[in-house]
Amino acid sequence: MNAPLPPDRDADVLIVGAGPAGLHAAFYAAWRGLNVTVLDARHEPGGQLTALYPDRRVYDVPGLPAAPAADVIAGLVRQLDGLPAQLHLNTLARTLEADGEEWRVGTLGPHGPRTYRAGAVILAAGLGALRPREARVPGTHPDVRTDVPDPAALAGRRVLIVGGVPQATRAALELAQAGAQVTLTHRRAGFRGSPADLDALAEAGHTGRLDVLAPAVLLNVTPTGAALTVDGQPRDVPADTVLILNGYLPDLTPVQGWPLGWQGEYVPDGVGGRTALSGVFVAGDVAASGQDFKLISVGLAQAAVAANHAAHHVRPDLRVRPGHSSEKRLS
Ligand SMILES: Cc1cc2nc3c(=O)[nH]c(=O)nc-3n(C[C@H](O)[C@H](O)[C@H](O)COP(=O)(O)OP(=O)(O)OC[C@H]3O[C@@H](n4cnc5c(N)ncnc54)[C@H](O)[C@@H]3O)c2cc1C
C-alpha cells in the first residue's frame, strides 16, 4: 500500500529520465508503495528507443525476442498501470539542491520553472536530455520550428513537415489525426518509422489524409511555407507552421553541474546505485558501473537495484530487497 505523501513533498522518489532504466526504476519504487514522479525532457517516454530507433527491432531484451523498440517501451509504460507513478514530460531537470534530508530538483517544464521536492532522486539520464537537432537546411529562417508542438494546438492549421526520420513520420500522423492539414516532404523517397507508423503513413498518403511529397528538393523554407521541386516540377507549399524534424541529439550538460563526481559522461556508483550524495542514485547508461555496456538489459537490472535502495532510503521501514513479485499481489 502506498502511504500518502508528506505535504512538503512532490514525490517520494523523483526519477530523471523516462528511458528504459527510469521507467523500470519507477515500476519498482511504485510497486514498493512509494509515490514516484518521472521527468523527461521529451514529449514521450522511451529515451533512445523512441527517439532514435523506434523503427528497429531489439533482439536482446530478455523474454521479448525481436521486439520493436517502441513495443519494449509500451510494455514498460503499461507496467506502471495502477501504480502511484506519474510521468511529467517536456520537463528538463536542471538543478539539484539538498533540503535537509530531502532533495530539490529545479526544472523547466511546459508551464515554466518548477521545483520538485523528493525524498530520493534517481538519475537515469542515459546519454543526456534528447533535444531536437537543429535544422540543417541552408538558409532556413530561424523561426522555423525543430520540435513537435502539441498536436491539438494545430487542429485545422496547415502544417509542413520536412524530414524523413521516425520523429517526422510520427509527427505527421499525430498532427493529421488531430485535424491538421499536413504535408510531409523529404529529399529521399523513403521515410523511417516503426512498422505500424509506416503502414499508417502509406494509408494516410493513399487516402489523401495527408500529402506526401517525396523525393523533393527543397529550395527555400520560411515560417510560412516552402518552395520545392518534385520530379523537377516547382511547387510552393504555403503553411501556418513549418517543422524541420531531424531527430535528436543528447545533451548531458543540464545535469553535469550536479556534484556527483562525474567521470566524463558517467556518474560513479557504488552498491545499490548509490552516488556521492546520500539519497541520490543512478541507473542505466549514465551509471559508471555499467562499464560501457550501454544495454537495455544492464540498465533494467541497475534500475531494479537502485529503486529498491531508494525505497529503503525514503522509507527505512521497508526492507531493501523486495521479495518476489510472483508471490505478492500488485494491488
Ligand atoms: C541506434 C541504437 C540502437 C540500440 N540498440 C540496442 C539494442 O539492440 N539492445 C540494447 O540492449 N541496447 C541498444 N541500444 C542502447 C540502449 O538504447 C540504451 O542502453 C538504453 O536506451 C539506455 O537506457 P537509459 O534509460 O539509461 O537511457 P536513455 O534511453 O538515454 O533515456 C534517458 C532519458 O533521460 C532523459 N533525460 C536526460 N537528461 C534529462 C534531463 N536533464 N531532464 C529531463 N530528462 C532528461 C532523456 O531525454 C531520455 O529520454 C541502442 C542504442 C542506439 C542509439
Automatic annotation (TrEMBL):
Catalyses which reaction(s): 2 reduced [2Fe-2S]-[ferredoxin] + NADP(+) + H(+) = 2 oxidized [2Fe-2S]-[ferredoxin] + NADPH
Annotated keywords: FAD, Flavoprotein, NADP, Oxidoreductase
Domain FAD/NAD(P)-binding, first and last residues per copy: 12-308
Enzyme class: oxidoreductase
Cofactor note: Binds 1 FAD per subunit.
Assembly: Homodimer.
Family statement drawn from the similarity comment of this UniProt entry: Belongs to the ferredoxin--NADP reductase type 2 family.
Protein name listed in UniProt: Ferredoxin--NADP reductase
Source species of the chain: Deinococcus depolymerans
